[in-house]
Write a structure and sequence with these properties.
Blueprint: H1 2-5, H2 8-14, H3 27-34, H4 41-72, H5 74-93, H6 98-126, H7 132-141
Length: 142
C-alpha cells in the first residue's frame, strides 16, 4: 500500500493530495530541500485511516472464521475468506473515493483475517506429526 499512497493520481482521487504549490514531479526532493509539509493533518489522518481500517477487517474476519470453521468445516471457511479477499481486492481496484476505498479495505481485511485464522489450524490438522513443525514454520515464513 505504501507505493500506492505516493501516487499523485491516487492522492487526488482519495482527497488526500498534498497542499497546493508543491509540484508532483520530484516531490520528495523539493520537500527535503525546502522543508515543506506534504499535507495537512486531515490528509495525513485520512491516509492513516485508509491503511488502518484493513486491520479492523482482519479482526472481524478472524473472529467470524473461527466459529464458521468449527460449524461448517475448514475448507468452507477458507473458501469464505478467499471470496471476501477477492471481493475486497476488486473493490479496492475500482475505488473512486475515500469511502469506497475504506469499505473495500475492510472487506479485504475480513477475507485475509479469515484465511490467517483458519489455514494454520487446518494445516496442523492435516499434516503428519513428524512434519507438522516444519510445515507450520514454512507457512508462517511465507
Amino acid at each position: 500500500m505504501s507505493q500506492v499512497n505516493l501516487n499523485p493520481h491516487y492522492q487526488e482521487l482519495m482527497g488526500i493530495a498534498p497542499i497546493e504549490g508543491i509540484a508532483y514531479s520530484s516531490l520528495f526532493q523539493s520537500v527535503q530541500e525546502n522543508n515543506l509539509c506534504i499535507g495537512n493533518q486531515r490528509n495525513v489522518a485520512a491516509l492513516g485511516g485508509i491503511v488502518a481500517v484493513y486491520y479492523g477487517g482482519t479482526l472481524i474476519g478472524a473472529l467470524v472464521a473461527g466459529s464458521l470453521a468449527d460449524r461448517c468445516g475448514r475448507i468452507k471457511a477458507v473458501v469464505f475468506g478467499s471470496l471476501w479477499a477477492l471481493l475486497g481486492a476488486v473493490l479496492q481496484a475500482s475505488a473512486y473515493n475515500i469511502t469506497w476505498m475504506c469499505c473495500a479495505r475492510v472487506i479485504a481485511g475480513v477475507g485475509v483475517g479469515a484465511i490467517d485464522c483458519v489455514i494454520p489450524v487446518w494445516s496442523a490438522e492435516v499434516s503428519s506429526h513428524s512434519a507438522r513443525g516444519a510445515f507450520l514454520a514454512i507457512e508462517f515464513f511465507m
